[in-house]
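Quick one: structure tokens for this chain, please?
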Amino acid sequence: MSTCMLCLGSNDNPSDNISEAVTTLTRIFPDIRWGDTVVTTAEGVSFPVPDYHNRAAIFTTTMDISSLKSLFKEIEKACGRIASSKSTGIVPLDIDLLQYDGEVLKPEDMESAYVRQALSTIR
């Protein structure tokens, strides 16, 4: 079993999209532990966009990194994510695999204030 960390983000219908992702991921990974929702302003965007709702979790899995990323992309698409979402600044759902079995996959995200804040709320 591998221990993983993820962070969800949404600024388009965030309550529903985060809830849908939490329900789906909890069904797939029954041992998942969720943190609280953290609301933050967008980082690195030069035009106004709605605030992001972020939620982090820790879980274990036998899935490999590639399979997890594919699963996350399917969940994002089911919540309305399209290829142009990031460029428009309107993101229905973003699921980032931050860490896999101790290996940090997204070091810049792990340094972000919103990710650190979301991770700090996991019980």
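The chain has a mean pLDDT of 94.
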